[in-house]
Amino acid sequence: METPTSPTPLPDRLREGLARIAAVMRSDDWRRAQELGVNPTQLAVLQCLEGRRDGMRVGDIASVLGVSQPTATDSIATLVAKQLVEKRIDSGDGRSVRVFLTPTGQAATQAPSATPGAAEAVLQALPGDDQEQMLDLLVDLIRRLQERGAIPIQRMCASCRHFRPCAHADAARPHHCAFVDAAFGQQDLRIECRDHEAADPATRTAIWAAFDRDRPPILQAP
Ligand code: SF4
After folding, report:
1. Which atom of ligand 1 sits closest to the CA of residue 163?
2. Looking at beta carbons, which pairs linking 195-204 to residues 24 or more positions away fall under 8 Å?
3. What is the pLDDT at residue 220?
């Protein structure tokens, strides 16, 4: 039996905590999906396509969502029937198609929810410093997962060729985005950026080394 003097290992308790939060987020997604008249997988497809000016191939959508290609194909077919997404011939490869949000799908994904999710409400209520620290940890966790090959490269600053970490002396805005040529702060790090362009592995390693060097000691990678 677990007691305060004989707890389960800390990583186990962290995983338990993350699982609780994931369950709440799944529940929030169910409610949001119902609002839009889709199921949670179809909602995830819509969210995945948001901001993708070049659309996505079906296989890439399946990879990002961690579902099988037949599951992604079925979900996309339903969304096409609902006129929320459309398929177009890939301009670079006439044998394949890419999936895009329609204007209706775009409006649906951007429409405010009638009832904000519980997880979203709790996150919004966190003090700003806690939000920033959590963002930093999430970036690190996601980076580790993608470097292990557990998830595809995500569209976040830490894997973007435009990211120049700690390029400025300004403590409030130390980072630089070369895409928009502007400085930005730690709290503005992106996890899902429509302008992201994946850096090659060597550049990703160099970016992370520069980023990690200036993080508070408690957040630095071992
Ligand atoms: S383009 Fe987006 S992901 Fe890349 S550095 Fe700029 S803000 Fe970050």
Report:
1. 5
2. 195/162, 196/155, 196/156, 196/157, 196/159, 196/160, 196/162, 197/160, 197/161, 197/162, 198/153, 198/159, 198/160, 198/161, 199/159, 199/160, 199/161, 199/163, 200/161, 203/161, 204/147, 204/158, 204/159
3. 58
